[in-house]
């Protein structure tokens, strides 16, 4: 894997069972597993979450996903569009795509991954105390998969 082909850490609507997983990741990924993003907090948004830096040492629960062979460029483009990422520091960004170290749950290994975090102009809602999007209660405006 080249430095440009990092895995992705997903923590919200792209997680298995959530409404964007099948729409955007199906057929484009090959493997992954549970992971955690240390030094971050998870906040509710209008149907999707925002990860933000947390100097208090919180963590965000999610999944590490790898692009399927030959699917990396397409997956990156699809996720950038979904996350409203127009380029580093762009004023229209909803999220910034940053390289962050995540921890794989299965073996504790630290892995560099792309993570979409709240951009400067985003307005995160209340903090999700467990740092786990799947543990939240009913969310306003988000379709839920049964």
TrEMBL record:
Residues 8-134 form the Gamma-glutamylcyclotransferase AIG2-like domain. This is Gamma-L-glutamyl-butirosin B gamma-glutamyl cyclotransferase. GO terms for molecular function: lyase activity; transferase activity. The keyword Lyase applies. It holds the Pfam family GGACT. The keyword Ligase does not apply. It is an enzyme of class 4 (lyase). CDD domains: GGCT_like. Keywords: Lyase, Transferase. Its EC number is 4.3.2.6.
